[in-house]
Amino acid sequence: MRCLKVPKSRGEEVRKKLLDADLLDNRYRIGNEDDHLLIPVKKKIAEGSVDYKLVDRELVEREMEIGDYRNIVDIPEPLRDELPASYDIIGDIVVLKIPDSLHGYRREIGNAIIESQKKVITVLEDKGVTGDFRVRDVEHIAGIPKTVTLHREHGMELMVDVANTYFSPRLATERWRVVRQVSPGETVLDMFAGVGPYSILIARNVKIEKIHGIDINPRAVELLEKNAHRNNVSHLVEAHLGDARDKAPRIDADRVIMNLPHSAMEFLTHALKSIRGQGVIHYYEILSSDEIEHRGRSLVVDIDRYGYEAEIEVQRVVRTYSASEVHTAYDIKVYG
Ligand SMILES: C[S@@+](CC[C@H](N)C(=O)[O-])C[C@H]1O[C@@H](n2cnc3c(N)ncnc32)[C@H](O)[C@@H]1O
Question: Which of 78, 133, 155, 160 has the greatest number of CB atoms lying within 10 Å of its CB?
Answer without folding.
Answer: 160
